[in-house]
């Protein structure tokens, strides 16, 4: 392989030395702790989540974009670069980190009381305490406003009942941020693992994100004290704002998955010989490699640009939707094309391509389906909402 595809435009010029250090240290972590093992984790449908979380915490990767409480306080671009390296290892590993930091920790940081922040955020930043984010329900995925989970007052306490589905980190979480409908609108609650009435079941038989914990949370009259409610969270805008933060990680993260596939294809086509010469010597192969490099380079530029907008404090939800729409589509198409370039070898776990391809099918759906983000962008363009 004569060139790393994303180096052609010298993208490092857009980054600060600190951002490059974050990227490089995360890449070393992935090289040492993820790449040698992830195919086996994926095949077995397991992941050492707690062990990885502690190691990621030691590197400052958990809640890295948050200020104070033991968090690194880095910018959105640095966070995106870390997500790209984690997802180059596996989307499930990136999900572990981004759900912890951008969903669970961000919810506490943005909407929690000072007591809640002091209690939960420092051990979560160290990876000693894991969190999950309970918003999606079996009948309320793309339409979270239709959630059925309810929280009702019982004296000074709250009683929660309902079901949350597709919850990353669910079976290993020490605390769940659960969103529920109340008489005053949607509110967030911190529900500790093992609370009476809380049942957590791992989702079985997954064909994607297999190196990730995915669970169903059932709440049957779960009673929590008044101080379990996130006092600053009022309405559906609170959980949706958390999703905007997490989607920034996806926008950048999928570039890493696509890059891993493209670099694998470059190596393979340079070594594999057919008709007396390397596959990379054929015009059709080079055309595909060039097109994929163009798509991923554009996606990487978009990720950095959105990160800079976020750092300026002017990021809008529709901009993140455009980023997720474009970049996940680009990465998935790259993975599919690379799988074809590897031929039969592309369907085995000896190479990471089909694993990434399967994972990206889930990334296309979660935190807003492809179609939902199309409608968000469409509404921004036309001023007309087309969701109902």
Automatic annotation (TrEMBL):
* Gene3D superfamilies on file: Acyl-CoA dehydrogenase/oxidase, N-terminal domain, Butyryl-CoA Dehydrogenase, subunit A, domain 2, Butyryl-CoA Dehydrogenase, subunit A, domain 3
Q: Which cofactor does it need?
A: FAD
Say which family it is in: Belongs to the acyl-CoA dehydrogenase family.
Entry's Pfam families?
Acyl-CoA_dh_1 (PF00441), Acyl-CoA_dh_M (PF02770), Acyl-CoA_dh_N (PF02771)
Specify the Acyl-CoA dehydrogenase/oxidase C-terminal domain's residue ranges. 234-381
The Acyl-CoA dehydrogenase/oxidase N-terminal domain extends over 16-128
Reaction(s) catalysed by this chain, per the record, are: glutaryl-CoA + oxidized [electron-transfer flavoprotein] + 2 H(+) = (2E)-butenoyl-CoA + reduced [electron-transfer flavoprotein] + CO2
Q: What is its EC number?
A: 1.3.8.6
Give the molecular function GO annotations: fatty-acyl-CoA binding; flavin adenine dinucleotide binding; glutaryl-CoA dehydrogenase activity
Show where the Acyl-CoA oxidase/dehydrogenase middle domain sits.
Answer: 132-222
Identify the pathway: Amino-acid metabolism; tryptophan metabolism; Amino-acid metabolism; lysine degradation
Q: Which GO terms describe its biological process?
A: fatty acid beta-oxidation using acyl-CoA dehydrogenase; fatty-acyl-CoA biosynthetic process
Q: What is this protein called?
A: glutaryl-CoA dehydrogenase (ETF)
Protein's organism = Vallicoccus soli
Which keywords appear in this protein's UniProt record, sorted alphabetically?
A: FAD, Flavoprotein, Oxidoreductase, Transit peptide
